[in-house]
Amino acid sequence: MITAIASRVEVMKWMEDFVHEKMTEFLKSVEDSWQPADLLPDARMENFFEEVKNLQERARDLSYDLLAVLVGDTITEEALPTYESWLMSIKDLPTNEESPWMRWNRAWTAEENRHGDLLNKYLYLTGRINMREMEASTQYLIADGFDLQTDNDPYRAFVYTSFQETATNLSHRRVAQIAKKQGDGMLAKLCGYVASDEARHAKAYKAFVGKIFEADPNEMMLAFEDMMRKKIVMPAHYMRELGVDMGKTFGHFTDAAQRINVYTALDYTDILSDLVKEWKLETVSGLNDAGERARDYLTALPDRLKRVAERMRSPQLEYKFRWID
Ligand SMILES: [Fe+2]
Ligand SMILES: [Fe+2]
């Protein structure tokens, strides 16, 4: 524990052993990891076309909204270069290649890279997706980047990742449940595998923030408050389609997710109240006046947002995405 008021650089340096420990706990080695090929038909096999035919039959009854959400999720996962460069641009992290922070960033990216790969191949094989349109959206999203409003600050960045990994765990899990109901057990399995990776990542990032709270409670509280006042935006908030104005596609994607209950405004508040509990905000000590006010704001926020979310109606309009013929 750091007693005197430490700078962010010192806190990050002090956390290196902890990050190493969490990395072994929450990331898997390559040897222990599933690969997309484990979950998809093998093109070397004689029964490949038979298996693809079965895959296409199972995917035939997937609803339009579910497919749209799945394409949006895939594009989000495939914009991984943006997320890796964002992680690498966080200030105050030790930058030598062998620092546990840098190893974490690389190993996290390596795990995440399997997600887009798996979902992309699956969607291609279903025969229900206009792949060119989807690929153009991915290229747009990587080129457009994002603005998460974390100001390259590690405290804000890890609030963001704690929130976001929890949200992706939830949404992939929900897609898995719906896919199962709609008769596609294979898709349910794929999304379940992705969801369980996201759950491990969420645990690690939450642990990072918990550790920062030990060393620098006031600054951590203020950073959390700042992120929640700005609101957590989705990493794919600039998502767009060829020939469609920026902003439109993303709104329709989140509408579809809300409509089929994959990710809703209530989920946003549930995740927030989870984080408030996880980091035991009520019992954090060492706060100054601003820190106390931030705590008051944060502990009251879930109920406030919940009342707003409960009044929100599920969006009705079914938009025709260019991704789906
Ligand atoms: Fe992912
Ligand atoms: Fe993730």
Automatic annotation (TrEMBL):
Binding site residues for Fe cation 1: E77, E112, H115, E198
Protein name as annotated: Acyl-[acyl-carrier-protein] desaturase
Keywords from the UniProt entry: Fatty acid biosynthesis, Fatty acid metabolism, Iron, Lipid biosynthesis, Lipid metabolism, Metal-binding, Oxidoreductase
Gene3D superfamilies referenced in this protein's UniProt entry, alphabetically: Ribonucleotide Reductase, subunit A (1.10.620.20)
UniProt-listed GO biological process terms: fatty acid biosynthetic process
One Gene Ontology molecular-function label: metal ion binding
Cofactor: how bound: Binds 2 iron ions per subunit.
Lineage, top ranks: Bacteria, Pseudomonadati, Bacteroidota, Cytophagia, Cytophagales
Subunit structure: Homodimer.
Signal peptide residues on this chain, from the entry's feature table: none
Cofactor: Fe cation; Fe(2+)
Family per similarity comment: Belongs to the fatty acid desaturase type 2 family.
Binding-site residues, Fe cation 2: E112, E165, E198, H201
Pfam families: FA_desaturase_2 (PF03405)
